[in-house]
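Hi R.,

Here's the chain you asked about this morning:
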Amino acid sequence: MPNVGLQITETSVTFFPTMIPSALKKSQKPITVLLADDDIGFAKIVQDQLQQFQNREFKLIWKENIDEALQEIQSNHSIDLIVTDYVFPGTNGLEFCLQLNQMNSEIPIVFLTATRDFKLAIEAMKLGVEDFLIKEDLSESVLPRTILNVLERVRMQKQIKAVEKRMFIAEKRAEAIRELVVTVCHEFNNPLAAIKISADLIRRQSLNDEERNLLKTFEESFQKIETEVKRLRDFSFERIDFHSVDGPPSVKTTPTKEEQP
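And the predicted structure, written out as tokens:
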């Protein structure tokens, strides 16, 4: 396997992606990981672990302080995940996470620490950290597997939020339609009632055969209009399926009481 390339500046290193079979390159894009840690030795350990992990291609960007990490995040929109240490000269990883939140960053974060401090883990989780790892527990596959699991979890969370948003919009739309239907039916009811009274008055008059036939035809048409208005008014919005993920809301085929034989 070819040696990984290094691009070194005064305070940062970019580790180029590990070489893997071309078929995998075509099917999966490299995962870009930003590592914020003031120890270049640990950064090389992380790179070795990512390099040895099979079937995925990683690009690791190392920054030794928070300021440079923030600058990289602002300028590099290809970062998929951030791995940060807790201890930095004059600051810490929690402050880094807080600044990321203030930037409205949506990049998932894996938090690293050298101690088993569960209070620190809780504080980190409160700031939106996706996972918390102890440095001494990082075997060859723990970190890369954690990165993949976090990215998959975040992807699923985004899908769920998107579905919930579509459901919310569909329900609000149905609510607006329901209010419109009620208003329209109300507007129909008054003139229909007046027309029906007028038809009853006409029926009591002395009518010839032609007039009676016309009145009968009118009453049949009027009955159809009345029936359709009633069906519209009594339409059950509970029959609309808002939980359809693959398409717009659909109407269930279960008939209402009026439609059942």
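Residues 6-140 form a domain with the Rossmann fold fold (CATH 3.40.50.2300).

Let me know if you need anything else.
M.
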